[in-house]
Amino acid sequence: HPTTAMNFLRRRLSDSSFVANLPNGYMMDLQRPDNSTSSPVSPAMERKHPQPPQPLHSSSAGTSIFSSISSAMKQTTQAAAGLIDHSTSPTPVAQKPKVLLVIDDAHTDWAKYFQGKKVNGEFDIRVEQAEFSELNLAAYVTGGCMVDMQVMRNGTKVVRSFKPDFALIRQHAYSMALGEDFRSLIIGLQYGGIHTVNSLYSIYNFCSKPWVFSQLIKIFNSLGPEKFPLVEQTFFPSHKQMVS
């Protein structure tokens, strides 16, 4: 009876062990409509004539992408090694030279010692040399320090104004001789924020010998007379106390 046969098939197809033992393609044949005229293809035939997979991109597109990646990797490697030629890059703007103020007498020509030298390998150095007595200046809170220089060069008076970036001081800034007190210029350089060798702080302190000796006394008391011997001295605020 047709109804009894269908019920039997449903019970058998619900059994997983039964379905597992069916020949390959059997379920596909059952599911195919009765009016289908095409012959089913067995898995063996499908494996015998596999369809070639379709590439996601054309060969030309793949070659182009690989070429771009290779080029980018090459540029990155060259950049890391410093091998890229920058000859086609725009010409860099010339940097303004750094001004070095040298305070010394004319017996030493400091310009020749800095000729061809660069600051950080980038900035040229322009040397302006004069003595303390040939300088004047004005310093500002935000404008730095403007130095006026009047010197005699080979019988010719040279007048120049400039803003130093650095200062090298090779003269004593203070002496008890008349007109030899240049501590105001040291203060002006400090006021304008000019960097120096040695520091302006140490140069200003060395203007007073008793002040320097007081620093030596601190070392003497710390290390002792055997490790740091010091000539004994006595300090008086003025000559009047010395006489009395």
Automatic annotation (TrEMBL):
Major localization class: other
Residue ranges annotated for the Synapsin pre-ATP-grasp domain, each copy included = 95-194
- Residues covered by the Synapsin ATP-binding domain: 198-243
The yes or no answer to whether the keyword Phosphoprotein is present is: yes
Q: Which GO terms describe its biological process?
A: neurotransmitter secretion
For this UniProt record, the keywords arranged alphabetically read as follows: Phosphoprotein, Synapse
**Localization per record:** Synapse
Q: Tell me the segments the record calls region Disordered.
A: 26-62
Query: Which GO molecular function annotations are given, in alphabetical order?
Result: ATP binding
**What is a single cellular component term in the Gene Ontology annotation?**
synaptic vesicle membrane
InterPro entries registered for this protein in UniProt = ATP_grasp_subdomain_1, PreATP-grasp_dom_sf, Synapsin, Synapsin_ATP-bd_dom, Synapsin_P_site, Synapsin_pre-ATP-grasp_dom
Do you know which Gene3D superfamilies this protein is assigned to?
A: 3.40.50.20, ATP-grasp fold, A domain, ATP-grasp fold, B domain
Record's family? Belongs to the synapsin family.
Q: What is this protein called?
A: Synapsin-3
